[in-house]
Amino acid sequence: MTRNPLRTTAAVTLAAALALSACSTKAGSSGASGSDSAGVKSGVGVTDAEITLGVMTDKTGVFKNLGLGITQGNELWAKDFNAEGGVCGRKVKLETVDHGYKADTAKTLYPQIEPKVLGFVQLLGSPVVAALKQNVLSDKVVVTPASWSSELLDNPYVMIVGTTYDVEMIDGLSYLQEQGMIADGDKVGHIYIDGEYGKNGLRGSKHYAEQHKLDVKEVKVTSTDTDLTNIVTGLKGEGVKAILLTTSPTQTGSVAAANKALGLNVPLMGNNPVFDPALLSSPAAAALDKLYLVASGVPFSADIPKAKEVAAKYKAAYKEPANIGIPYGYAVGAVWGSVLKKACENKDLTREGIAKALTETDSASTDNLIADLDFSKPGAPPTRKVYVAQIDPAAEGGLKYVKPLFQAPDADKYQAPHQK
Amino acid sequence: METTTLIPTGPPATRPRRSPARLVRAAAWIALAVLLAALPLYIDTAWLKAGQYMMIGAVGAIGLTLLTGQAGQLSLAHAFFLLVGATAYTVLAGPTDEERVIGLGLDPGLALMGAVLISALVGLAFAPVAGRLRGIYLGVASLSLVFLGLYFGQSLDSLTGGTSTGRTPATFELFGFPFSNGGPEIEVLGVPIRQAERIWYLFLVLTAIAFVLARGAVRGRVGRSWRAVRDNEAAATAMGVGVARAKAGAFAVSSAFAGLAGVMTVLWFDILKPDESEYGTYGINVSIAFLAMVIIGGLGSVPGAVVGALIVNGLPQALTLFSGDLGWFGETGGGGLTPILVSSFIYGAAIVVVVLFEPGGLAAIGRRLTGLFRARPREITREETS
Question: Which domain covers residue A396, as residue numbers?
Answer without folding.
Answer: 165-295+387-413
